[in-house]
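USER:
I wish I could look at a protein chain and see how it folds. I am handing you a single protein, as its sequence and its fold in token form. As I understand it, each token names a local backbone shape. I hope you can help me see how the letters and the tokens relate. The protein I mean follows directly.
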Amino acid sequence: MKRNLSTTTRLLRFNRRATMDKANLTKEMKQWLGPKNILGDYVKNPYFYPNQNNKPNYIQTQKKIYGRDSTINPFPLNQYTKTNYIISEDLKDKILEDATNLHPQEIAHKYGINLQRIEAIIKLKSIEKDFKVKDELVEDLKRFSTVMKNYFPLFNHQTVDNLTEIPTKRINDRFLTIEENEPFGPVDAAKILKLEPAETTLKSLTEFNLEDHQKKQQALEDKKVSVVYGKKREGEKSVFRFTQKDVGTFGHRYGASRRDRKKDRAIGFDSLGKMIYLHPNN
């Protein structure tokens, strides 16, 4: 029986130990990173500065891989992992305007955006109104957000998110055909909608349990701790805070004093005959 060997492909032999040599790996890494500047940054590396044209500069391979977009797929050998598109500020403003009249599910279908992203945009915009940033962080946050917005690809109507999780049937009204003389009340409607009756809901909202209320108030009182804040002077970044604690129930000793490390410490005995180290003043 003959064994035919293929001659179309070249058999490459390599030394595994040589490829995993630490010195070689360090040398190749330094060649790829390039020289450092005075701050320790590799400014001459082609991937050091992020692109600002909404096209990420992911690592590109020498050989072009079929089906891979280097601006969307971060991993060369995985074409299924894709970078998500960011929503522009103009589109966010339109979503907020529609949120006053439309349901988030309807907005998701209108723009072709995932429902969770629509809900997140509405929620974060409401938080942004009351969010206050420290003065010393304003410039850094502004610079960081500008770079990130210009780095990732922008969402457009040609790139539609996966909308399969949106229950489209719940958007439409529900109709039920019944006889003219057939009784139909709130309890029957609650059963069809799989909700509890309105009477039960209103009763639970109006009931007031005095014992539960007193327990909650007592729990809040127990958690209260007296705190005194120090005065923050000009130029200081920190504020001292003093918290009231009971003596003997808080704090512990750490480290060792100088006399505890001496080899010729004075030794004595207490009333029970236990050996103790005497204080130098005794």
Observations:
- The radius of gyration is 35 Å.
- The chain has a mean pLDDT of 76.
- The beta strands are 227-229, 241-243, 267-269, 275-277.
- Residues 117 and 123 are 10 Å apart (CA to CA).
